[in-house]
Specification:
Four copies of one chain form a homotetramer. Chain A is 38% helix and 17% strand. Chain A has eight helices and ten strands. A seven-stranded parallel beta barrel of chain A has the order 1-2-3-4-5-6-9, surrounded by five helices. Chain A has a two-stranded antiparallel sheet with strand order 7-8. The first copy, chain A, is globular. Chains C and D meet through helix 2, helix 3 and helix 5 of C and helix 2, helix 3 and helix 5 of D.
Chain lengths: 257, 257, 257, 257
């Protein structure tokens, strides 16, 4: 096969008595799991269970560190210092690595969550703090980032491997950023359309923007599926079949990057 | 030299704007640091700084996991399930191991904190959960415990190395438990007396109880110094000199256990 | 009508991105809402919304304070001092009273949550701390408690009004305590049976225990419906109809106690 | 006497085992206490104790609400929605009002803390959210704000009473903002100089800026003393004597605004 791509999803975001997501279903279909680490979501028992579930389905595991804000689910920007961001990422990634170790697994990647991901995509200070944390823990860890983002460039400059993500069901602005969920047409619901865009992104490295122009994203390594939508499981099934038909091999990014 | 002993202290218990303890001073005199992991005290930046300080002074580092209770400083018992205790210890120890790794260090030991330590000393379910966590992370980690306690026995049964602790400035009950701080004469303040008791504990494995009987503790591997008392630094200096004079070598427990 | 009874339910237990319960549905059918206050569940915005929802449906509002343990949903006992319990109840009740005030409402009652409720039912120190807190805030507040419990007696001794609760769908032990959910037959699912037991409790003050004996509960003021079960809405509809047919008037407890 | 002024300080910022500030000393000299409410600092027991201490010294009490960020002491800006800010202020102020009520006191004022105060001073959305919260709780509450700030104007527009604050030991920029603590000469240490500036601010409504120009602040109602500096107690003593000598009466702002 000529093309290969990874499918990732944010999982393990339940917390105590609170359940969120379709982890048990989604885990059957993805190749990389971004696992919450207790700062924006999750708790030690949810983390242990999510690592076990990933192991069962042979899904590669990565840390999904966020701002220390359970009440805001890590979606509210916080003005942390570089030192605080770096240490928060070490803490969360170290904690998840502990659970991986108890199951004989090693982490494949780190993907920042929510507001921290968005900030790192465009702010060099935040990106550097995250890359410093990840590299100092393990220089073999892959960093997930939007293609051509500040985070992607910062990680590459530090000789870290970067997995460029494509958001399968989200509309893109001309500057490669995602159209805000608050705006109309920000999210695609037609799975045929989503598949078509995904195949194009993976095979040609391009996407059609919200104003109908085609822009270059470059090489795409991983497709992000949001697990909190009710239709996520159905969508990922459609994607898997469509990608296979298009001769695109679906594998964990760590095996081919 | 015939006798060897470790000196340990609980450090890294500051939190955000809140400072506690005399870490910079104490770190010069101890051989093992029990470092708080963010559940009963500390935060990611304090953890990073404490690991760096320990490295500078070549002090062996260990995790000091507690109940998830910052407001209670881990001193209030919480009825967690075995699974919750085990996963809490994996989480906290994993997080600290991450900071150690960024400095090229490995953890030497795990010592539960406060109410979790007291519970594990006498409750088998709690002790098992802690030992399971530590062993599944790294079977070479040493577990600190009161001599002859349920925690010590449980760890030994699971073939883990156990460092038996002596509390230098605390009075003992006939059943080897510590006299409650709320009671009179629970704490020794005379450093000459404390030294004398310590030497006896290390060389003979005995201690005089609060009712003036001598009881057998058995082999002592480490002396615990409380860092939150103002006189802690002075006491540890006195102890070091006195132990040296008594031909007792002071070394990190991982080097001789 | 000869008999009157209140129907209460625990509501407002969502938290940030996490949703729990069927508040919008249940609020249409109950007369008293026990509203979580941010310690075991909820956050300021959920509290504001829940107060507004109660106002819309003219449901009487009360504070539902719990242990400070979001990760454990207040279901894990914590060894707090009397002073800590008292102050925790003042804090949580005061916070909810603030939201009530912004909507022109006043609190009707306080019902402790989960492990704190269970502890107060049998432990005098805990019961006293709660009653002290509630009385010092407002001696007109009603305290919800199991009939004949330590909490009920302690509140009555302090001249506070007590609403004795009947748990409609739970099996009772011969000592009036509830059969643990972990045991078989602890929960009734047959709504006809539940209604029959409820009518008997309200009109005769008795309940049949799990071993088929009839025990005296005494006067029942309120029926507790658990909102987190999927069938809660259906059950409360059945209960309302059945109680009406049995000539039992359903009113907020503050109107008739 | 012709001039009157209030002296306020941030108190009650200890948390669990962590102690901060000189509350017992400062409370003897100030007229208004801004009491932390558990989000950026404090806990229910510290709040209860601080209210009692204020009552003992007949100091007027106010809420000092902050961002929900204990680890950052409320000094890190967080992107909360208007609704979240409003509800956070209702929650915190309501909780403190509860403790005041148990001691027979009523709140005099609300002063936002740290990053929330700074944000409200210049951001209308934040200022509106805070004013909405305070007004909906009690339209008689006084709002503390920098003179001429967005918060001061927003509160005045809503017909709320505003206490304009002067920061006695801080250097001012030409635009009336405070010189960042990170810059040289940001803080005055000479108590004679501080007194002189304070008298001028109170009697003439002006201050000399860091570049030696005199700017108009307008009427000053309260002088803010930072309690976390070791010299705070000494400074407030000097200020009190000097203000008395200058015929400026020192009274809680609620008595004369």
């Amino acid at each position: 096969m000529k093309y290969r791509v990874d499918i990732n999803s944010d999982l393990g975001e339940s917390f105590g008595a609170y359940t969120i997501g379709n982890d048990a279903q989604l885990m059957r279909h993805i190749t990389s799991a971004n696992i919450a680490c207790g700062f924006h979501a999750s708790d030690p028992t949810v983390m242990a269970q999510t690592i076990k579930l990933a192991k069962k389905h042979r899904v590669a595991v990565g840390a999904h560190p966020g701002y220390p804000d359970l009440a805001g689910f890590g979606r509210r920007e916080m003005k942390l210092t570089s030192e605080e961001i770096e240490n928060s990422v070490v803490y969360q990634t170290g904690a998840l690595a502990g659970f991986a170790k108890t199951e004989g697994l090693a982490l494949q990647h780190v993907k920042p969550h929510g507001a921290l991901y968005n900030k790192a995509a465009e702010d060099e200070q935040t990106a550097k703090a995250i890359v410093n944390a990840v590299k100092s823990l393990d220089p073999n860890l892959i960093i997930f980032a939007p293609p051509n983002s500040v985070l992607a460039k910062t990680a590459a400059d530090r000789k870290m491997r970067v997995a460029a993500e494509f958001f399968a069901d989200r509309a893109y602005n001309p500057d490669q950023s995602l159209v805000s969920r608050a705006k109309p047409n920000a999210i695609f619901h037609d799975s045929k359309k989503i598949l078509e865009r995904t195949v194009k992104a993976v095979t040609e490295g391009v996407v059609e923007t919200i104003d109908n122009k085609t822009i270059k994203l470059g090489k795409i390594h991983s497709i992000c599926i949001h697990g909190d939508t009710p239709s996520a499981v159905k969508l990922v099934e459609t994607l898997r079949k469509g990608l296979a038909k298009a001769k695109i091999e679906i594998k964990a990014v760590g095996t081919f990057i």
